[in-house]
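Revision sheet: structure tokens.
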Amino acid sequence: MSVKRTSRAGTLLMAGASLAVAGLLAGCTAGGSESSTADNRNSAEENAAAGDTVVIGFSGPAADHGWLGAINSSAIAAGDSFPDVELRVAEGTNDANLQISQVETFVNDGVDAIVLLPTDGAALTEAATKAMEAGIPVINVDREFSSPFAARATILGDNYGMGVSAGTYICERLGGQDDAVIAEIAGIDSLPLTQDRSRGFADALSDCGLSVTNRVAADFTVQGGEAVTSQLLSAAPEIDAIWNHDDDQGVGVLAAIDAAGRDEFFMVGGAGSANAMREIQSGDSVLEATVIYPSTQAADGIAMARLIAQGKTMSDLYTPSVPYRVVLDAPVITADNVDEYIQFAFES
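Predicted:
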């Protein structure tokens, strides 16, 4: 199974080819006249122009983690950026029952759309489905519902792709070293997102003949990251590379590495925190790369909710409606491109 990431140049070439084909199809009809395909699109200017005011309800989990805090703040900033959006923000919570009541309140208030990052996708599915049945489009962010009828659109980070990106980077750095010792510091093993990240990582390493030698799991906290990394370093006297799934717990991971005085390996992080990017910029850390898991997902959800509520399309696509499912990219950030991405980073 080949899982190598497509290069940016290759992606642009393929995109260009696809648009060229689309252009040909749009221009070729039985009568030789131009198709109306392109006419269904809103232009970027039309999308940016203020329309009828739409009321969007937003509910997300408690901001007890740097990435989650960035999710909430970026959603609010997105709402503020549109003069025709009234954003109603519910208090962040990790209580599924409270979040259900928040969705019910939005429905009773008759909002035009709901953007929801559920604390538990399965637990919020029924409430979201009822909102949809009431004619209110729901935009599902990050943690998926268990029914396709619970959301008009879903926007996700690419957990499997994160693992592929991290593994591909390590393969490129250690190519040909069949005996390389690769360590993995995962998040919470019971979560599907952690399982997806680990699966992508293993698949990418397998593609270049490598595999994970030592693996531990933390809990997405600084304390957990420090504790399991101390155990890992004690068990593995020599390591060539480490992938840590989460930059928030990475603060503890780096603390344990510093305390052990170890620097014979390089490390790749995950999520894209500002402190991780500053470590990369410094050039003095074992952390030399991190893989983005976008904290802009809810902000993108707000933008999509506005388009859907106003009956607009996505200006760069030929399809005459907003896509049902969007999966964001998981790029690798290194010293070569960190200056382009640090503006989007979140503080741990």
